[in-house]
Hints:
Elements: E1 18-26, H1 32-42, H2 48-60, H3 73-80, E2 88-93, E3 97-103, H4 111-118, E4 123-129, H5 136-147, E5 152-158, H6 167-183, E6 189-193, H7 217-223, H8 229-232, E7 237-238, E8 241-243, E9 255-259, E10 264-266, E11 270-274, E12 278-287, E13 290-292, E14 294-296, E15 300-305, E16 316-319, E17 327-336, E18 342-343, E19 347-352, E20 355-369, E21 374-377, E22 381-382, E23 387-398, E24 411-415, E25 422-428
Parallel strand pairs: 1-3, 1-4, 4-5, 5-6
Antiparallel strand pairs: 2-3, 7-16, 8-9, 9-15, 10-14, 11-12, 11-16, 12-13, 12-15, 17-23, 17-25, 18-22, 19-20, 19-24, 20-21, 20-23, 24-25
Amino acid sequence: MSQTTSPAVPEELLGETTLLRFATAGSVDDGKSTLVGRLLHDSKSILTDQLEAVEAASTARGQEAPDLALLTDGLRAEREQGITIDVAYRYFATARRRFILADTPGHVQYTRNMVTGASTAELAVVLVDARNGVVEQTRRHAAVAALLRVPHVVLAVNKMDLVDYRESVFAAIAEEFTTYAASLGVPEITTIPISALAGDNVVEPSANMDWYGGPTVLEHLETVPASHDLTDCHARFPVQYVIRPQTPELPDYRGYAGQIAAGTFRVGERVTVLPSGRTTTITGIDLLGKPVRTAWTPQSATLLLADDIDISRGDLIVPTGDAPATSQDVEATVCHVADRPLTVGQRVLLKHTTRTVKAIVKEIPSRLTLDDLSQHPEPGQLVANDIGRVKVRVAEPLALDAYADSRRTGSFLLIDPADGTTLAAGMAGEAFASPTAAPEPVIEDVDEEGWDF
């Protein structure tokens, strides 16, 4: 996948403990819960009372060893009762890195929940049962990871103990998956043979697979490069709030506050405000109440500008010469997450970063069949868990990047204006890794009352 030129990492970041967000996916009974439990147990990331509760529950079931899958069962019960959004999050850390793990459901009807969990992930662990190999659900999970542009994918071939730790079994599965995932544009694929139940190659190297010389799962998680917008994306600053104290001490202070969505901003840099297109210079940056020379993603900062420009919430500040084109026509891939369908002609709200505008679904050109990646043309609507292409007309110009270039500023939500329900999560540009078409020019005639853009 093509990447933009990477700016230098500020010295302030060097030496810091990095954070890795990753998601797990796998078919039912592939051992995903056991893998998560093994990671937490063997990395000493669970409390003593949690382990004692698992041991007691396992003994009550007549099991000789603790069933580590029980470490996630409590959260799964919450999901079944509809308390959460069907994604369980676990937080743990080692001496080398901090982790946020999104444990996503494996059933086909929960595709939308994998999208939720993997949307911010920098790595996805896809499990397969060594006895079954690559199945339909495996291909589906690989396709979702590719759609979401997850930069690192790990294939964990589990239950190697049930196939006598044979290298030939692992090699065949690894080759089939790697070929398929690479065809989808997944930039990096790592394959690891494991037994989550026995602990082989999860945290400690396996004595049963001396033919494997690669990293364990935890070792790979600790050493894989953490993907940051700072190093590979265009600088983008969505304005969230305009600060004007108008106090005797700060009578003329006007700052534009928000979280940097991508890249780095520096004092003295020429910037452009979108959608107006006005240009100015950054005269100051306030961070945690103190002036700094540089700020980067994902810091929350306040920018001070040389000129008095009309800027409000939802505007986007970008480096002059590196501004995305603005357009009222958005073509994107969406995952439909609501129970009610999305139909052609439907009036919606489109939320992009801090900007929310009226929009109309003009066309649904196709629905993606994840089983074989075929396109079903002109479906007329998208229902829950569907992934499809949509063309949306918005009331005001938007500055969207291609999702392939920036997951933060290339994504958006479609919202029901009647009750605020999220209908779909969108990714601007092409579905899988491929060149992105240029946005169409802005058309200014908008009928606000009729929503006929």
